[in-house]
Write a structure and sequence with these properties.
The chain is α+β, with helices and mostly antiparallel strands. It has helices at 6-18, 22-34, 41-54, 57-69, 76-87, 94-106, 110-122, 129-142, 145-159, 165-177, 181-189, 197-210, 213-226, 231-244, 247-259, 290-306, 322-329, 333-344, 361-373, and strands spanning 268-273, 276-281, 351-355, 378-381, 386-390, 393-394. The protein contains 19 helices and 6 strands. A 6-stranded mixed beta sheet has the order 2-1-3-4-5-6, with helices on one face. The protein is globular.
């Protein structure tokens, strides 16, 4: 051929890999690099698969490092191929086990995550600090308080690893999410290291989740004093006051935010369609297809009502009437992104959304019902974990 591009190399390498000629596939990949041709995701899937079958795991790890260095997007197929490669390793390093434990937990496979930790110990791999962060994170994702306590105690008692501030923060979050707010606060008080703002922040979030406004106000005031420039703490404290109807206190907190130049991070949802990233803010009408999106939102609202959906107006912490609250709720960025996904992504391809903040209760409920009403899989990655919505349920089992 007078000219050989990424596509022609990809077809050739993929063909050899599919015919089980893995050594030839790797040799061709080396030739491709010598010609200065940049590989794409398709080529790398074939090459990593060849590495797995040949146990050429050093080269596979090098390709993974190459992907990170070039900041290439890891799509579902490429990501799965990498996981297959690491699982195939006869001698998995502790970092490989840690990645598996954490990745499974973040996607809702908590039972499998903890089973992987047990398998790791059976393989005589010594866990480290990061391992226990992953394990405690798995317990946190499902509210496994007793199991979390057991692993936390075993860190120093069995493995000689002294818990760091991050491990204590995980335990505070685990206890707080489970509603054990007093125990969480006592743990903070008895920590051998001074608590950081993240640890106090985990307790504040738990107070908001479980409606303990007395403790929440006390912790929130402490955090606002400790870190007056942090928007999240101001917003949480303001929300606690709003949930009580204490609008004077809400205005006070907003005044403090203006005084310190604190700007609330707006909720933003992103979705990729045909290689283009589309971003949506709450109430966004700036998209070129906004009219079609509005029609889809109306259609979603009708189908949701047929599914028994009732808007959770407690999520709208504004001094407005109920009808306006419902309208505000239905223009959250996640719902707009889902509407756009329904318009532009054909089934059975999942609708994948990235949210910069924690998904709210109402959007979580709506996403479950939309997945059933439209028979579509929806995946939302919020700031804490992945939520896989399918046929009216979520992988988090409504615990997040």
């Amino acid at each position: 051929m007078p000219q050989r591009d990424t596509v022609s190399w990809s077809v050739l390498i993929s063909g050899y890999a599919q015919r089980d000629r893995f050594a030839d596939a790797l040799a061709l990949f080396q030739d491709m690099q010598l010609e200065g041709i940049q590989p794409d995701e398709t080529v790398l899937v074939s090459v990593i698969s060849a590495c797995t079958h040949l146990s050429a795991l050093d080269q596979g790890a090098w390709i993974h490092a190459y992907i990170r260095k070039k900041q290439m997007k890891v799509n579902v197929i490429l990501g799965t191929t990498l996981i297959d490669m690491y699982i195939a390793m006869e001698e998995k390093g502790v970092s490989t086990w840690n990645a598996l434990i954490l990745g499974l937990a973040m996607n809702g496979f908590v039972k499998e995550s903890l089973a992987t930790f047990s398998e790791m110990k059976e393989c005589n791999i010594v866990p480290n600090e990061i391992t226990f962060l992953a394990v405690l994170g798995a317990c946190r994702h499902m509210g496994l308080v007793e199991e979390g306590r057991r692993h936390f105690d075993a860190m120093s008692r069995k493995h000689g690893i002294e818990p760091t501030i991050k491990h204590y923060g995980c335990m505070v979050d685990l206890l707080g999410r489970a509603g054990k707010l007093t125990e969480a606060e006592e743990l903070i008080a008895n920590m051998p290291v001074p608590p950081d703002v993240s640890t106090w922040g985990a307790l504040l979030g738990a107070c908001k989740k479980h409606g303990d406004n007395v403790m929440g106000e006390r912790v929130g005031r402490k955090l606002v004093d400790l870190q007056p420039e942090h928007d999240g703490f101001h917003v949480l404290l303001s929300n606690i006051y709003a949930s009580k109807g204490s609008w004077d206190n809400v205005h006070e907190i907003r005044g403090m935010m203006r005084q310190h130049g604190v700007i609330k991070t707006p909720g933003c949802s992103m979705i990729e369609v045909k290689g283009t990233i589309h971003e949506f803010l709450a109430g966004d009408k700036t998209h070129p297809q906004s009219e079609d999106i509005e029609k889809m939102l109306d259609d979603m609202a009708k189908k949701l009502k047929m599914e028994g959906y009732a808007p959770d107006t407690r999520e709208v912490l504004l001094d407005i009437d109920e009808e306006d609250k419902e309208t505000t709720l239905f223009r959250h960025s996640e719902k707009i992104a889902i509407a756009f996904g329904l318009l532009t992504i054909d089934a059975p391809t999942p609708i994948r959304i990235m949210k910069n903040l924690r998904i709210c209760n109402d959007c979580h409920m709506a996403a479950k019902l939309i997945s059933r009403a439209y028979d579509r899989e929806i995946v939302v990655r919020d700031r804490h974990r992945f939520h896989h919505f399918k046929q009216g349920s979520c992988s988090c089992l409504d615990y997040w």
